[in-house]
Amino acid sequence: MIGELATYALILAFCLAIVQCILPLIGAHRGINNLMHIARATAIGQFLFILFSFCCLIYLFLSFDFSIEYVAINSSKALPWYYRVSATWASHEGSFLLWILILSLWAMAVAVFSRRLPLEFSARVLAVMGFISAGFLMYLISLSNPFKPLMNEATGQFLMVADGQGMNPFLQDFGMIIHPPLLYMGYVGFCVAFSFAIAALMGGRLDSSWARWSRPWTTLAWVFLTLGISLGSWWAYYELGWGGWWFWDPVENASLMPWLVGTALIHSYAVTDKRSSFQTWTVMLAIIAFSMSLLGTFLVRSGVLKSVHAFSADPARGIYILIFFFVIVGGSLLLYARNAIRIKGVGKFSLYSKESFLLVNNILLLVMTVAVLIGTLYPVALDAIRAMYPSSNLLQWALDGPPAVISVGKPYFNFMMMVFLLPLVILMPLGAIVKWKQDSLKGTKSAITSIAIITSVVFIFLCAIFLLTVEATIKIHSFFIIILIAWIMAGSLWPIIYRMIKKGSVVLGLKSTNRSTYGMSIAHFGIAIFVIGAYFTTYYSSEKIVKIKPGETLTVGQYKFKFDSVKWHTGANYYAFQSSFKVYNNDKFIIQLKPEKRIYWRNKKLTTEPGIDPALTRDVFISMGEPIKRKFMSALHEDQTRVNQQYINSVNAVMKNEPWQIHFRIIAMVRWIWLGSLIMLIGGLIALSDKRYRNKKRKSKETKDAEVVTE
Amino acid sequence: MNRFLIPFIVFTLVAIMLGVSLCGNPKALKSKSKLLNQIAPRIYLPSLDGKTTVESVHFKGHWVAINFWAEWCVECIKEIPHLVKLSKQTKIKLYGVNYLDVKDKARAFLVRHGNPYIASGFDPDGLTGVDWGITAVPETFLIDPRGIIRHRHLGPVNQFVIKQFKSIVNASKSSRKSEARSK
Domain B41-172 is in which class? Predict the structure, then answer.
């Protein structure tokens, strides 16, 4: 019953989306105000219907309604209520519903906050969003309905099961509850920038006002995406028990690509907004940013990456998403080709100007995106070539030639990122100080010297800290990295320091700096923090893998570990071996860590829960391998009905003196990676709160009111 | 030509490629592999723990599965439980080849996720991988007692692949029996 209601709500939302897509466009074309006004109402209505069906799905999970296939596959009775809520977006169908819900949320936000925009323009924006929404709603209703009842496909009979299959244990975690919604907020948020760009292309109005309107939206989406990606990285770090923070997994790459393009877009907006230049380029970036989001959705959701790699995955779904992806992106690129040719940039600039630096920034970020894209698509591409030319000698080199040349995987990605990230961050401070339009080396000489002086001060300061605190053997390249970090820090703080010097006082300087500048400085400073984290984690972490018995101790650097015991542990919906370690730093007791090896009841999946002691300078990270006698792991597989106190006691007695393989790691400064991204997104938020955007709102409202009066 | 059309053309090419690989049947690909039903390329590698070697000589007379894996490969983690099942449930001997990795990290991987292999060869520069036509990991080859590659599986091993391996082994056993009978 509830399932049917929810499906019905989705169908209504689909109808509204169709209306939202067609009527306002006709209105904008013919100049009919009434039709254009429809867009706003339908956007809000659509959101309410989708929200209703989303709440229905949550309710179905909470009430254990296993007559719904999606609920039966993704939850079980043993699952705590908060995981049952997050199970709503744990798998394909539900996460697509969440995707669409967030899309309609953005559309509603645009509808509510775009009253200051010209009616014609906002009608077009909402129509574009309505089109995208309609396409995905149709997909959801026809091919991946989360409310599909559980039934026997052959006989058409409805089925009822006593208990569901249970949730993937990796997803049973707090990080996983909030990570997908935030990531989607970012992904889908670029849809707003895209719709603004398409609306501007349709109307032929690619002036600076368009860029100014869509700037805050894009920054907001970027902030969400940054938060989502860092949460995902943090989750992988502690939940998957690997102790790494980035794995170049296709799913991760799918979120990194829109982030890179989005970052380029934010910088390109500045040029279009302030200098009325780069219009066609900015429009292009807005289209690419959303295309990357869609491509990511396609790659992750269609199973194309798995079509090389697996049996399952429904090809109809993949083909639908691909065709729709092609219609949206191909259509907008054709529109771009038709209209962009007529646009001529007004702002001319010389080689040594802010524009040039921002262009270089854009190009480097795009090249990085392409590098990630190639690495991600390489297996797919090879597959496609093989399928098209099964016996071509010409292409034989590509198939059977030395494939190690472009190998997909960490080595390739790390190398590519290093090569392009270095010039990017080296040039970053320069881009911030050079003037718009035209500048001379002479004009920036004093600024560069000042930054150099600050850099050397910061460098000495950082070196002192580094030499005093580091225990490991010092590597020579560390000093180059510290110079680089000092350079980024000095460069990012300079705009604020400059104003202080100019005003002659710290307080006046701080006051006269506007929030955009603060935002930029803080975000750039965050990059310095991020670089510190990424570098030191890679080069100053130490680890040991040993065979160790309860009662024994082990030393890694200055840390001493005492292995106390391995004991049976009964969790909420799993059994585990829980070990206990006392950690000493230079013989001083710090903490007791309890890593686990878990087996979940329902699907018998094995997971490793590391024991982590987090700190600013290092993480102590212990994860359990296997008992040396592997057969002991089978104790955890015992059926629930046969586990009693006696059984547990006997297992504990056996495990008392069994040696285990244990992985000890001291991971240097890994927290700085997430701290850096946090600072970056705070920078984004501060830039977002700049007076410019709010004042413009008020001003345009006033002018609009004035217009109404004169009418 | 309108230079603004270039992005559209590039995008169309990418989309066609995605479409082709989406519609392509992964099973059909394998039959095109040059290695199939040929004598397996030679392997002579030091093992990861440094104690033994993994070499083709050891394989003779047994059904052997060679699994190419790497520490940086996320799919490889997912297949470990299935590999454990493969070595437990069947008589197939499972050897690994660690592909393009750093020794310590690869060892740490096996500690973290479990070690299903009898032994893992260490192939840091990927040269053995080149011989076997590896482009991405994981890949698994099934080799019969005479050293001939009978099946190549791209991607992580799952329960279906195990079934397939079993049926290949059984089919060849029964065919050999019938051969013997006819003689």
Answer: alpha beta
Structure tokens at A293: 């989001």
Other C-beta atoms lying within 10 Å of the C-beta of residue A649:
11
A95 burial type by CB count under 10 A (0-12 exposed, 13-18 middle, 19+ buried): buried
Local structure of B80: helix, strand or coil: helix
- Degrees to nearest 5, angle at CA A222 with A220 and A228: 105
Phi, psi of B156 (to 5 degrees): -65, 145
Per-residue pLDDT of chain B (183 residues; tens, 9 = 90+): 677 888 888 888 888 877 776 665 444 444 446 677 888 888 888 888 888 888 888 888 889 999 998 887 777 887 888 898 888 888 899 999 998 788 888 888 888 788 899 899 998 877 788 778 776 778 889 998 888 888 888 777 888 888 889 888 888 877 777 777 766
Site from B49, B72, B73 to mutate, A interface, most A CB atoms within 10 angstroms:
B72
Residue type at A162? Answer: A
Q: Which residues contact A467 (CB under 8 A, 6 or more apart)?
A: A474
A231 and A175 in contact (C-beta within 8 Å)? Answer: yes
Best CA proximity match to A169, nearest among A67, A64, A241: A241
CB contact under 8 A, B21 and A381: yes
CB contact under 8 A, A341 and B2: yes
C-beta atoms of B133 and A403 within 8 A: yes
Rg (CA), chain B: 19
**Domain definitions of chain A by residue range:** 1-172, 193-435, 440-540+678-711, 542-668
Task: Collect all residues of chain B within an 8 Å Cβ-Cβ radius of residue A384.
Answer: 16-18, 20-21, 24
Give the strand pairing for B93-99 and B120-123. Answer: parallel
CA-based nearest residue to A50, from A165, A147, A171: A147
- Which among B18, B32, B81 has CB closest to A380? B18
**ipTM exceeding 0.85, yes/no:** no
| CATH number, domain A1-172 | 1.20.120
Q: Are B112 and A623 within 8 A, CB to CB?
A: yes
What are the residue ranges spanned by the domains of chain B?
41-172
